[in-house]
Design brief:
2 strands; 6 helices; mainly alpha; 113 residues
Length: 113
């Protein structure tokens, strides 16, 4: 994909998200996502010597998707993939329902109760 097209995708996504370059779900920045996977912002591995890694580079620095309704990160995509592979979509739907419809039941009562 051309640089110009990616440039436009990125800024359209920022418009849809109110100018926030963060994952809509977990609020990680692209730098946070790279750090999560063990890479610096430029794609070089952190602690490579400690782990005995050689010639490891994060070649594709696209750790955020800007093509959807909101920006999403590779960590959240992996989490959703894992939930799907485990066949846990119904549990995810139920959890969403609990979080939206029965929120007060999920959290311990405050100190005043």
């Amino acid at each position: 994909m051309g640089l110009d097209r990616r440039f436009h995708e990125y800024f359209k996504a920022l418009d849809r998200s109110g100018g926030r370059d963060r994952c809509y779900l977990c609020q990680r920045t692209p730098a946070d996502v790279k750090l999560f996977f063990g890479f610096d912002e430029d794609g070089t591995p952190l602690d490579a010597d400690e782990h005995g890694l050689e010639d490891v580079v994060l070649e594709n620095l696209d750790v955020m998707s800007y093509r959807g309704l909101r920006p999403t990160c590779a960590v959240c995509q992996l989490n959703l993939d894992a939930i799907t592979l485990l066949g846990e979509q119904a549990v995810l739907r139920r959890l969403y329902s609990e979080m939206t419809d029965r929120r007060d039941e999920l959290w311990p009562p405050g100190d005043n109760e």
